[in-house]
Write a structure and sequence with these properties.
rod-shaped, about 80 residues, mainly alpha, single chain
């Protein structure tokens, strides 16, 4: 039983790290983000505060949402495997 818990923990951490890496990359590829970071005509609409306001939430959301989904699915699978 201990080995299964360690595997689930490792899988959850890996999924969280992948989400925390992929979410900012996806956020940077959005046209709205490029417009705020100076992608407009002659820096029109440049607003670097998005790095302090949006980016932390993107990273946290990217880390915690996949981890939450993984945890819920692991709990449901464990509950189906060991009914009371």
């Amino acid at each position: 039983m201990k080995r299964h818990v360690d595997g689930v923990t490792c899988g959850g951490c890996a999924l969280s790290a992948a989400g925390a890496t992929a979410a900012p990359l996806l956020w940077l590829s959005m046209p709205r983000t490029w417009r705020h970071l100076g992608g407009g005509f002659e820096n029109e609409g440049m607003d670097l505060t998005v790095l302090l306001t949006e980016l932390p939430f993107v990273i946290l959301g990217g880390a915690f949402l996949p981890l939450l989904a993984f945890t819920l699915s692991a709990r449901l699978r464990e509950r189906r495997r060991n009914p009371r």
